[in-house]
Amino acid sequence: MNSTPVPDPLTSTPAESANSTKAADNSSKAHDAATRTLASWRATNPASSGAQAVGSTDAHASGGTITEILRIPALGKNWAQPVYEGVGGQQLRAGVGHFPGTEQPGQIGNFAVAGHRSGVAIPAFRDIDRIRTGSTIQVTTAHRITYTYTVTRVRTVAPTDVNVIAQVPDHPNAAPTKAKLTIVTCWPATGHAKRVVVEADLVSSRGGA
Q: Which residue in 93, 177, 193, 196 is a FRET match for 36, CA 20 to 30 A apart?
């Protein structure tokens, strides 16, 4: 797994409103995290089997504190994955990792996450090909707010294309005007030649503590 240190978790309080109008510019921090992770996926997305299972009691399989729960009906009626802060080996072995420096769920900007497609006992995004334009993605926070996103684009990009997790994907210098979600995993299913990128826009939110 990738042994490169992961930046410290964000210390700001997540915005709990889908109507937020201002987002801090974390593009540089996010770009650095993405460069380390996306360009070195050979180490973090092995095609071999026998890795730690999600839920293992082994200390190395723990991803830390769960910050959100991700649900994607296209991947299964009961499909749900924990989201951890960071995209290092520790987090991606246990579930889905949030790129430090990208926004929080519901915030204006880009909430970007990554996960394995192979190489661990239960890869989070093994069936990523089932996600299509129009698919629904839900993110539930610790404050019991569920944000619902609709997929707008699914594509493959080069491993070096870190601008996919910019606040405005592909436009790192642009100011965001909407809340987005981006999922990044590997392509092909048992390799790492390219990256699959799923982009979605926030359409609603409900609940609250």
A: 177
